[in-house]
Amino acid sequence: MSSTATPPSLPTPQPLPGPNASPAPDEARLAHRARIGHLAEALGLRLGLDPDAAQLLRLAAPLHDIGEFDPTAAEFEPDWPLTSAEGRRRAQAQPRRGAALLGGSRLPLFVLAAEIALNYRERWDGNGYPDGLKGKTIPLSARIVAVVDYFDSLTMQRRFRPARADDRALAMLAEQAGSAFDPDIVAAFLAHAPALIALRDRVDAMQSAGGTA
User: Fold this and answer.
1) Where is the composition biased (Pro residues) (predicted)?
2) Cα–Cα dist 80/12, whole Å
3) 3-state helix, strand, coil in the chain (%, to 5)
4) Which is it for the CA torsion 123, 182, 66, 29, positive or negative?
5) pTM for the full predicted model
6) Would you say residue 55 has pLDDT above 80?
7) Positive or negative, the Cα torsion across 134, 165, 190, 29?
8) Counting beta carbons within 10 angstroms of the beta carbon of residue 64, is it exposed (0 to 12), middle (13 to 18) or buried (19 or more)?
9) Contact status, residue 188 vs residue 7, Cβ threshold 8 Å
10) How far is CA 53 from CA 39, 44, 161, 168, 201, in A?
11) Which DSSP state fits 13?
């Protein structure tokens, strides 16, 4: 995979349309989703997607983890605390739930969002889930979202760990090229990391100012 000869300028953050589809996510998750969308669009452009396809990716990518918030799932889950096997089964069911929630529409946005939700936990080496897809059998949309989700998640502060510094997150991403992630997509992210990080910071600034990126 190669980028265009003259890379397009990175897009200006734009509002996401309509209300967020997941039930009452906290502000950190909302901000993460906004960043995921913009980073996926920008990286897609660098990989040669046309602007319309990249914009659709921006709108679909924030729904990547909607399977975690399926309100019907709780009635089928065992009581907490989960065993390690139950926790693994629950995590591996989430992509299918997300795809099912989104897959009832033929609108291109939701078709793409369902594709991402189903496949973004697959791994380049075939050791992901839910279907163990390998290499370029994983849809390009999901391969892009997996990379930007990984980087952005590392640089977020979590309850169980502090945020990683950008340079450390980039090094960790590079270590996963060819195993978890498409090495061409990782290479494109690393090559354009300063611009992508600047875009992320602009999206955060818009969020902090009370807007929706």
Assistant:
1) 8-22
2) 43
3) 60, 0, 40
4) positive
5) 0.81
6) yes
7) positive
8) buried
9) no
10) 14, 8, 35, 31, 23
11) P
Domains of the chain (ranges plus CATH)?
27-208 (1.10.3210.10)
pLDDT tens figures, 106-126? 999 999 999 999 999 999 999
| Residue 48 DSSP label | T
CA distance linking residue 158 with residue 140, whole number of Å: 28
In one-letter notation, the amino acid at residue 74 is A
Tokens of 181: 């992630």
Q: What is the largest CA-CA distance in the chain?
A: 55
88: CB partners within 8 A, 6+ apart: none
Whole-angstrom Cα distance, residue 159 to residue 167?
A: 21
A 10 A CB-CB count for 160 gives 5
Rounded Cα gap, residues 46 and 33, in angstroms: 20
**Predicted confidence (pLDDT) per residue in 65-75, tens digit:** 988 865 555 54
Q: Is residue 211 pLDDT above 80, yes or no?
A: no
Could you check whether the bond before residue 130 is cis, i.e. omega within 30 degrees of 0? yes
Enter the tokens of residue 85: 């096997």
Q: What is the DSSP letter of 26?
A: -
Structure tokens at 90: 């629950």
- CA–CA gap between residue 75 and residue 195 (Å, rounded): 44
Say which DSSP state 128 is in.
Answer: -
CB atoms within 10 A of CB 75: 6
Query: What average pLDDT does the chain have?
Result: 84
